[in-house]
Amino acid sequence: MYIIVAGGGKVGHYLTRALIKAGHEVVLVEKDSGRASYLQEELGDVVIRGDACEVRTMRELGMERADIVIAITGDDEDNLVICQMAKRLFNAPRTIARVNNPQNEDIFHRLGIDNTVSSTKIIFNLIEQQIESDEVIPLAPLMRGNIEIVEVDLGPDSPVVGKTIPNVHLPKDALIITIVRDGHAILPNIDVELKQGDTVIALVNADKEAELREVFA
């Protein structure tokens, strides 16, 4: 299959790599020049610098022959525009959109997007199934979009490098969900020591996001 992936964040990076390994023809389009250059070094010619919201870029990608168009940028509006144009202008057989705010999921379906993926909703379900609600932040705000999923890369100067999870002083009602190390997710138990290069994924009330990021800066 010919698959177009719009959005070169961590999800787009690892998804593209997995699709290539599975034998698919893949193009990854990323509009940030610095990020695109990094991805080109990692993945080669499959990475194109461009804005997938622009019709010209979509034509250059050969979207008219794409079997699947996947929009997984960090912006719900961009993901919606990309998938709608893929369907209406290029007759893409299947579109998949990342939905960052779960409140937008119903809108995406009403506007003809074939499949949506909401990481917030997935995490909500995992928390609801595996953890007692009084042990973590309230679950209802997560579904209303009042809680942010924050992703932070730990650099060499991060003050938390070398610390275990219990010794990281988080803002009130913040929760570390997982740590990604060398492409693998690690459960954040009390014995895990944070290392340079780790990506910490956490939940926090929207008004505390900046405070949370300062902890890891």
Can you offer a commentary on this structure?
The strands form two sheets. The protein has a six-stranded parallel sheet, sandwiched between helices. The longest helix is centred in the middle third of the chain and has 13 residues, at 76-88. The termini are far apart. It has helices at residues 10-21, 33-43, 55-60, 76-88, 105-110, 119-130, 140-144, 209-216, and strands spanning 2-6, 25-30, 47-49, 68-71, 94-98, 115-117, 147-153, 175-181, 184-186, 199-205. Mean pLDDT is 83; it is low at 129-140. The protein has two domains: 2-117, NAD(P)-binding Rossmann-like Domain (Rossmann fold), CATH 3.40.50; 131-216, Alpha-Beta Plaits. By secondary structure, it is α/β, with parallel strands linked by helices.
**Annotation, overall tally of beta strands:** 10
Oligomer: single chain
Q: If classified by CATH, what would the architecture of the largest domain be? A: 3-Layer(aba) Sandwich
Category by helix and strand content: alpha/beta
Number of alpha- plus pi-helical segments: 8
Helix and strand run: EHEHEHEHEHEHHEEEEH
Span from first to last CA? Answer: 41 Å
